[in-house]
């Protein structure tokens, strides 16, 4: 029998003992996961102390400890030394474009829209393709990895960003998120560990949770992930992979310089990690920069999505990979994708081969540079290694907020922004920020208005 009576005790989580079945630790973990994902436990809820919960359920403390550990590995809960265990604040907080008009009266500065005004170039390419005699050939199942001349265009576009690989090591996928799914499902296994920046792309976080892959946050500085910290973690906690976006990290906007890229590459080679390099912002990197992948020729998968650079609506990404991954990735594409739309790939190929792609990225760089100048009228860019023409900014908050509280109040002021907890891999006492999209407001005037509202909001808080 329990040591204490809990009949009227205000315990924050009371699992139904009648629902417990052997093994008890898995049953408790399942009940906790259900209550979190279905909203019965609010974000940041402090869970009962493990001893108290063990007493309530009349079971061993070690059973509760094992159950909590399962949920912690899944990212459902987090522990703070000396304070207790809490429900993670960003469960199911992947960032996506909603189909509703919920925020239609607000200035959008959360979602990173990629300056879709350049879609006039894309529309012209589509009109040109519609007149081609071979149009029907783009509408079948052939060439699952991409038509040969589409892959040649992919090779050409990668060379534009100093990544040169054989066409046999290139495939075309249905966008960046599809590429992540493909790579995680074919090259990794449930329980594997992948190193990431402390703050990283939230959709990658959520995808890893779905596949039961554990993300290990590695400390960084103004140049990005610290190689010595990565090396230290690898020596004590064997990792299988590493995910990086060195041209312009989302959300911190840090651009990793060439020295740091080479240092990270040395650690990758030393410990035999699989590099997942997300180069969606390659077109914003300084000229002459080379991907980390070029320094780990036996260990890389390089993803060059065109969502931000050319067109968000044409779901295409180019991936390149080391020889050892050819067979597994090919098998994965055959079974996961069947193939990517050749019509979509044709549109991007047309943009690349006609030179329109170069015009698009030049135009986007020009607009983004102008919007960054507007941003600097209101806020300082704290680190010199932040990309000067980034589509977004990482603004420190000088007050502690809960994620939903901060975003909701900002919304009531007329702006939609994201709190840093969405991007935080491990829920701890890390400094708080907000990510500001500079490219989502419809024009410079709307951006200036949004930044003015944001500054006033932060000063009043």
Automatic annotation (TrEMBL):
<keyword id="KW-0238">DNA-binding</keyword>
<dbReference type="GO" id="GO:0003677">
    <property type="term" value="F:DNA binding"/>
</dbReference>
<dbReference type="InterPro" id="IPR015424">
    <property type="entry name" value="PyrdxlP-dep_Trfase"/>
</dbReference>
<keyword id="KW-0663">Pyridoxal phosphate</keyword>
<keyword id="KW-0804">Transcription</keyword>
<dbReference type="GO" id="GO:0003700">
    <property type="term" value="F:DNA-binding transcription factor activity"/>
</dbReference>
<keyword id="KW-0808">Transferase</keyword>
<dbReference type="InterPro" id="IPR000524">
    <property type="entry name" value="Tscrpt_reg_HTH_GntR"/>
</dbReference>
<protein>
    <submittedName>
        <fullName>GntR family transcriptional regulator</fullName>
    </submittedName>
</protein>
<dbReference type="InterPro" id="IPR004839">
    <property type="entry name" value="Aminotransferase_I/II_large"/>
</dbReference>
<comment type="similarity">
    <text>In the C-terminal section; belongs to the class-I pyridoxal-phosphate-dependent aminotransferase family.</text>
</comment>
<dbReference type="GO" id="GO:0030170">
    <property type="term" value="F:pyridoxal phosphate binding"/>
</dbReference>
<dbReference type="InterPro" id="IPR051446">
    <property type="entry name" value="HTH_trans_reg/aminotransferase"/>
</dbReference>
<dbReference type="InterPro" id="IPR036390">
    <property type="entry name" value="WH_DNA-bd_sf"/>
</dbReference>
<dbReference type="InterPro" id="IPR036388">
    <property type="entry name" value="WH-like_DNA-bd_sf"/>
</dbReference>
<dbReference type="GO" id="GO:0008483">
    <property type="term" value="F:transaminase activity"/>
</dbReference>
<dbReference type="InterPro" id="IPR015422">
    <property type="entry name" value="PyrdxlP-dep_Trfase_small"/>
</dbReference>
<feature type="domain" description="HTH gntR-type">
    <location>
        <begin position="22"/>
        <end position="90"/>
    </location>
</feature>
<dbReference type="Pfam" id="PF00392">
    <property type="entry name" value="GntR"/>
</dbReference>
<dbReference type="InterPro" id="IPR015421">
    <property type="entry name" value="PyrdxlP-dep_Trfase_major"/>
</dbReference>
<keyword id="KW-0805">Transcription regulation</keyword>
<dbReference type="Pfam" id="PF00155">
    <property type="entry name" value="Aminotran_1_2"/>
</dbReference>
<keyword id="KW-0032">Aminotransferase</keyword>
